[in-house]
Amino acid sequence: MSPNDNSTTYHIPALLSRTIEGLDIHPDGVYADATFGGGGHSRAILAQLGRDGRLYGFDRDTDAMVNIPEGDDRFTFVLSNFKYMRNFMRYYGIEKFDGIIADLGVSFHHFDDASRGFSFREDAPLDMRMNRNAAQSAKDIINGADESKLAEILRLYTDLKNSRQIAAAIARRRLLSPIETTGQLTETVTPLLNPRNVKKELAQVFQALRIAVNDEMGALEQFLSSTPEMLRKGGRLAVLTYHSIEDRMVKNFMRTGNIAGIQDKDFFGVAKTPWKLITRTPITADAEEVERNPRSRSAKLRIAQFNPTDNG
Fold first, then answer.
1. Backbone angles phi, psi at 123, to 5 degrees
2. What is the pLDDT of residues 164-179, one digit of tens each?
3. Do residues 15 and 23 make contact, with C-beta atoms less than 8 angstroms apart?
4. E strands within 87-170?
5. Which residues pair with residue 87 across a beta bridge?
6. Is the full-model pTM beyond 0.70?
7. Percent helix, percent strand, percent coil in the chain, to nearest 5
8. Hey, what domains does the chain have and what are their CATH numbers?
9. How far apart are the two ends of the chain, measured CA to CA in Å?
10. Kind of pairing, strands 231-241 and 300-306?
């Protein structure tokens, strides 16, 4: 696979150099790539690790295994959702990580492989499972969830103002016959979308369904909440987000130490948080990178350093 051949590249990481720089890698450190995917971040980390450094890559999709670096005993691949990272640390005898990277973007591979059902560009089975062995697919949700649940999914994970109407249209359509393909879903919801912005709004519908299928927000919350247990003091957490819902969760967590973003203060009114912000505002791609990799346009990189007080 040529790294310069976009037709066959599994994924091109956004903001790669800024992410690796932000991790402040120590050659003999222990690191985790929570979302291995195409292995771009992992290869960049390995390039900066010395002989005694270690890297663990996590991914729940077996397709990602084709990208495992060959012949490098510093790297260990773990076939698992990143929300279970803490459990695997115990399994592998890892005391603490020096840094963790999580790229929450969906790999090019998932959008470009029509059989996975992530995109409306080609007609394919409604699947959208990151883990092919997961019990629930997009087809199951579209045909099995009640109308109010569908409306809730669209309301929570899109900016669309007519989530109830879209859910109602889906409910009416599936009464005639099950909605089983991306084409059937697209045909059902398109009349309710803004004609001048159909592709963007279709992308939001598919995004919402993908998030629900893979419990992306639940997994992210569980992952973030476990990072204080996984990082050494001074260790860094770098997270790339691609839509406002996940970015808000990451921002709240890094600023306050909790998902809700509730700021706790000490007796003197000083904010209490175990994190030191390395990026007070998110890093975004410049025009040159966006031209080279258009999907980097929506990427936001946030970095924080784990800085707990000595008394816990």
1. -75, 125
2. 999 999 999 999 999 9
3. no
4. 97-103
5. none
6. yes
7. 45, 15, 40
8. 16-108+216-306 (3.40.50.150), 135-213 (1.10.150.170)
9. 47
10. antiparallel
